[in-house]
Amino acid sequence: EDFEPHEVQMSVTLVGITALTLVLSAVITGFQAVNEAQRVRRAALAAKARRLLHRKDHTTVAAPSIEERGYHLFLSHVWGTGQDQMRIIKQRLLEMMPDLSIFLDVDDLLDISDLQGYVKRSTSILIFCTDGYFRSKNCMIEIRSSCMQGKPILALMEPDVHRGGLSKDAVRKQLLDADANYGKWGFGSDGPNGAMLCEALFAQEEIEWNRIGCFQDVTLRLIAERLLLEAAGAPDTKSSVESSAAPSVEDAKRPRWSYSSSVHSSVKLPRSVKSSVKSSKHRVVHSSKVDVVGSTYVQGELVNQNPKLSPPSGRFHVYCSSNNPGAIALMEEVRTTFDLDLLVTTDRHQMGQCDQFLVYLTSLTWTCRDTEAFAQEVRDAMKAGVPLLLAHEMSGTNQEERHGCEFGSFFACEAGATPSDLLRRGIYSMIAVALKGAQWRETSMVLLAQSLTLAKSSSTSTLISKLSSSSSEALEAARMASTKTKIAALTLRAKSKLTACACTSSQLTSTPTTPTVVVDDDDTGATLSWLARHLVPKGMRMLTINRADVAESAPTSTHAAPVDSHNHVTTLEMAATSVTTTDGGEVGV
Fold first, then answer.
1. Cβ neighbours, 10 Å, residue 482
2. What residues contact residue 374 under an 8 Å CB cut-off, 6+ apart?
3. Beta strand residue intervals within 291-402, DSSP E
4. Does domain 71-236+249-298 have CATH number 4.10.800.10?
5. CB-CB contact of 187 with 266 (8 Å)
6. What is the pLDDT of residues 533-576, one digit of tens each?
7. How far is 226 from 237, CA to CA, in rounded Å?
8. Which residues pair with 588 in a beta bridge?
9. Which of 67, 203, 220, 587 is the most buried (most CB within 10 A)?
10. Number of C-alpha atoms within 13 angstroms, CB side, residue 442?
């Protein structure tokens, strides 16, 4: 009895320890599970990451070495028109080169009075030239400090004026106008003026910002290559620091700058603006360590593809109108770029034998003297069911000679716009191939070549449905995934519960009497013209269904054009259905 309370106490203690052990084990197990899940997630993200690779051996590109607490790149921008873009640039560059160190104020700025110090610790400075930048005191401190310290400056241009974009001339004007604000900003008179900043800013070729994914890949690769180029041509960090701390006798004889403001401490450098710019140019032009430009690529980048062109379904791949300025030259450009066997005709009588009709969109398309003649050709092509291939020369770097313009000008322009009847017919229902200049031209050519390679599959997979003239019947149609499949039966669900037969074009020997789907499997390209000759005189309707007309899931609505003026338009409900093949399988549509 004397020992009973002690034994009970020990039992309670043991139970408590056991329970605590179980709780700790559960916590540790949970912590390990969370860590493992995070590790798996990081591994999955790393596997999906698009790294920057060397073209020569396809190995990942490593970031150059920098001093401790230093940055490879300083992102200088004004918040109003550049904050979102700089976040994207930092994230994507870190995805391409994870060991990069990039300064972004919202992430790295601890002391705004030390902007000059952050610039000094950065190897290169990216200036995002947008509206408002050159009216910002802090932005001007960053660009002036970069110029005074002889930092390599990368000018990133925003081409979209609606997002604060500025032309080079506008940038120069705003830099010159900023001179008037130096006094109220507290800048010293012995620092660089607007003209000197212009020279430093555009000492190297500017890079254009892009939002379209394939073009953005090029932009980010160019930025990364510029960083590698500067690292390859610049002196070692140690020697650079030593030379800055102890200028040579020759440097001591050069005029010294004194930059001061109410916020920043004085910074003196033994070089002038022009000598800084010249030394920057010298590093780029005469760098002998590595040949960086064009030596890398981003994983999955479009320029690595080599498009191939199969024979057309008809006689020609593309119809080019002589009334469409630049169209023929564009086709010649894409042909020579990839050495394609591209068949092009300008003969209007052969338009129906072409897989596509090129609509080359520039500032001249709807404003030149041949506009009406070209518009009539477009009408003829749409009436004949020839698919339109839209190619748009966008505004931007080196696009003046190609007459690049904003897409919105095709709808409203004092000099001329798209004819209203073509707009009603849906001339722009297909997305235009984006064409850009300079370093982005090759990507544009790949996009255009891909559109040409898709033309044959789009043309040969077109389903021609002959519908009765009764507008009360709305048949549901669908397109096939492959035209090489021999169809045994195809059921089209309709309000009238009609059943349509199906056949290939080689089996079509007489005029069908029931709604029929014909697949042009023999690549003759004659199915459409055959149906036009045999069905239109009998009052039947023809509907051409392309891959762009029917979504693969949700139903959508379109219209079938009447064959005569006495018949109003019939609304057709597009829906997915199934195609039963001769081998018993199904083709998803």
1. 15
2. 321, 323, 324, 365
3. 296-298, 316-319, 344-345, 354-361, 388-393
4. no
5. no
6. 544 444 444 444 333 333 333 333 333 333 333 333 333 333 33
7. 17
8. 578
9. 220
10. 12
**Distance between CA 465 and CA 221 in Å, rounded?**
48
Residue found by looking up tokens 């401790």 in the block? 68
Beta bridge partners of 337: none
Q: Which residues of 461-478 are buried (b: 16+ CB within 10 A; e: fewer)?
A: bbbbbbbbeeeeebbbbb
What is the residue-wise DSSP string for 151-195?
--EEEEE---GGGTB--HHHHHHHHHHHGGGHHHHT--TTS--HH
Question: How does strand 388-393 pair with strand 433-435?
Answer: parallel
- What pLDDT is stored for residue 517 in this prediction? 52
Q: Which helix (H) or strand (E) holds 337?
A: helix 327-338
239 and 67 Cβ atoms separated by less than 8 Å: no
Distance from CA of residue 407 to its chain's centroid? 16
Q: In what order do the strands lie in the sheet with 153-157?
A: 102-103, 71-76, 122-129, 153-157, 207-208
What CA–CA distance (Å, rounded) separates 324 from 359? Answer: 7
Outline which parts of the chain fall under CATH 3.40.50.10140: 71-236+249-298
Helix ranges (DSSP H) in 418-465 = 420-425, 441-460
According to DSSP, residue 303 is labeled G
**517 DSSP β-pair partners:** 465, 502
AA identity, residue 563? V
- Helices and strands (DSSP H and E) totals, the chain: 17, 21
Whether residue 367 contacts residue 413, with contact meaning beta carbons closer than 8 Å, is answered with yes
**Beta carbons of 495 and 476 less than 8 angstroms apart:** no
Phi then psi for residue 470, to 5 deg, are: -75, 120
Q: Are 117 and 90 in contact (CB under 8 A)?
A: no
Report the alpha-carbon distance of residue 11 to residue 16 in Å, rounded: 9
Structure tokens at 376: 């009539």
Q: What's the pLDDT score for residue 245?
A: 36
Architecture per CATH, domain 305-458, reads as: 3-Layer(aba) Sandwich (3.40)
Three-state DSSP class for residue 116: helix
For residue 383, what is the enclosing H or E element?
helix 371-384
Report whether 368 contacts 359 (CB < 8 A): no
Gap between the Cα atoms of 588 and 279, Å rounded: 62
CA distance 13 to 4: 14
For 345-403, the pLDDT digits (tens) are: 999 999 999 999 999 999 999 999 999 999 999 999 999 999 999 999 999 988 999 99
What residues contact 414, with CB distance under 8 A and at least 6 apart?
A: none
Give mean pLDDT, residues 432-461. Answer: 83
Beta-carbon neighbour count of residue 2 at 10 Å?
Answer: 5
Residue type, position 232, single letter: A
